[in-house]
């Protein structure tokens, strides 16, 4: 099996599985940041020092306990071209920082792509676990098991008062970022999303776009994650996020019920218009594609349309990204050409 499979297949195996509340929660993710004692943090390390970090963490990966998670396939960032790195970012398998600003960076990825261990990113070690639907507790349990295996082999940079030390002060403490990706079209359509997200920010959580901090919100997809890493335990962070997400899910369900009972003809028209455009358009940009796919997904969830399997929509969310389009058709495409090929690809998938 070639490691390039990670950039050639749009749908990660874990994405094809069912998870709780999967009509609203697209995925759950936990990421743990760690640094090694007696080694400069990545931003200050020399080439040789970062090589030593990679060697030590690779050695830790030979622990037989890692066998429980299946084979882990190594990807050295220096072996990847810019397009492959962009595709891996679009699939959330590596971070933008690892792709663009790492020295001796590497990622070790599981066969189903639910586990990604990043080395020499912003921090020496980042452990990421992805699950479908609302499974944030399961993602945390897996991540902390892996963290314990590493800690048996290397000494972490840790302070008795501040906790785990990280390159960015906002990660100091637990080093934990837990997040869920939520599809909230009904809250957007009923103009309640602003109030909901404002309330979220007041309980120690933050809302980001689909690629994390600084990224744009597209297709009514919102990433809800913890903002506080210091002063709370990991269990408290996970419990707080889980509780708030359950409330948002209920608000979204109530909004969907309102739309279907009070505005069924209008909703049916909206869904079928988007389906028609996706099925027949010859030019479509990424922003419109994301919005139209969101409409069709809502239509599927509301039982207004049964022409499109959910897995097809999941594939198209990845396939229509700029990196994947260039990977599939032509690396040198202009933005205008990408819009044409994006429409072509969507037509083909919708037709099937």
Order of helices and strands: HEHEHHEEEHEEEHHEEHHHHHH
For the record, give the distance between the C-alpha atoms at the N and C termini, rounded to a whole number: 28 Å
SS element count, helices: 13
State the major sheet: 8 strands, antiparallel
* Record field, number of beta strands: 10
What is the residue-mean pLDDT, rounded to a whole number? 91
For the biggest β-sheet, the strand order reads 2-3-4-5-1-8-10-9
User: What is the strand content?
Assistant: 15-25%
Form type: globular
Low-confidence stretches: none
* Rg for CA atoms: 21 Å
> Which percent bin holds the helix content?
40-55%
How does the helix and strand content classify structurally? Answer: alpha+beta
Structure description:
It is a single chain. This protein has an eight-stranded antiparallel sheet, covered by helices on one side. It has a two-stranded antiparallel sheet with strand order 6-7. The chain is built from 13 helices and ten strands. β6 and β7 form a beta hairpin. It is α+β, with helices and mostly antiparallel strands.
Secondary-structure blueprint:
Blueprint: H1 5-8, E1 25-34, H2 47-60, E2 72-76, H3 82-90, H4 96-100, E3 106-110, E4 115-119, E5 125-132, H5 136-151, E6 158-159, E7 163-164, E8 176-183, H6 185-189, H7 193-201, E9 205-208, E10 221-226, H8 234-262, H9 264-280, H10 286-301, H11 310-319, H12 322-328, H13 335-351
Helix pairs in contact: 3-12, 9-10, 9-13, 10-11
């Amino acid at each position: 099996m070639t490691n390039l499979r990670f950039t050639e297949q749009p749908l990660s195996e874990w994405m094809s599985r069912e998870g709780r509340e999967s009509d609203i929660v697209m995925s759950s993710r936990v990421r743990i940041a760690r640094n090694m004692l007696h080694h400069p943090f990545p931003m200050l390390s020399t080439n040789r020092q970062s090589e030593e970090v990679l060697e030590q963490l690779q050695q830790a990966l030979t622990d037989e306990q890692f066998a429980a998670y299946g084979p882990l396939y190594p990807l050295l960032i220096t072996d990847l071209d810019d397009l492959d790195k962009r595709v891996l970012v679009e699939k959330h398998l590596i971070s933008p920082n690892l792709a663009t600003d790492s020295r001796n960076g590497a990622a070790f990825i599981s066969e189903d792509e639910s586990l990604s261990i990043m080395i020499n990113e912003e921090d020496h070690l980042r452990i990421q676990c992805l699950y479908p639907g609302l499974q944030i507790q399961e993602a945390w349990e897996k991540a902390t098991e892996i963290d314990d295996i590493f800690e048996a082999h290397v000494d972490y940079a840790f302070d008795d008062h501040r906790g785990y030390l990280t390159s960015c002060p906002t990660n100091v403490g637990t080093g934990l970022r837990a997040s869920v990706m939520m599809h909230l079209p009904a809250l957007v359509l009923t103009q309640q999303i602003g109030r909901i997200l404002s309330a979220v920010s007041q309980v120690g959580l933050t809302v980001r776009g689909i690629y994390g901090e600084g990224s744009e919100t597209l297709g009514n997809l919102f990433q809800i994650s913890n903002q506080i890493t210091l002063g709370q335990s990991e269990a408290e962070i996970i419990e707080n996020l889980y509780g708030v997400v359950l409330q948002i899910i209920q608000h979204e369900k109530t909004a969907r019920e309102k739309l279907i009972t009070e505005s069924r003809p209008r909703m049916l028209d909206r869904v079928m218009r988007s389906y028609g455009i996706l099925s027949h358009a010859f030019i479509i940009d990424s922003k419109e594609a994301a919005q139209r796919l969101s409409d069709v997904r809502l239509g599927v969830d509301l039982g207004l349309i049964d022409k499109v399997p959910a897995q097809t929509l999941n594939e198209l969310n990845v396939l229509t990204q700029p990196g994947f389009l260039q990977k599939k058709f032509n690396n040198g495409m202009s933005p205008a050409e990408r819009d044409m090929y994006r429409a072509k690809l969507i037509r083909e998938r919708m037709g099937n």
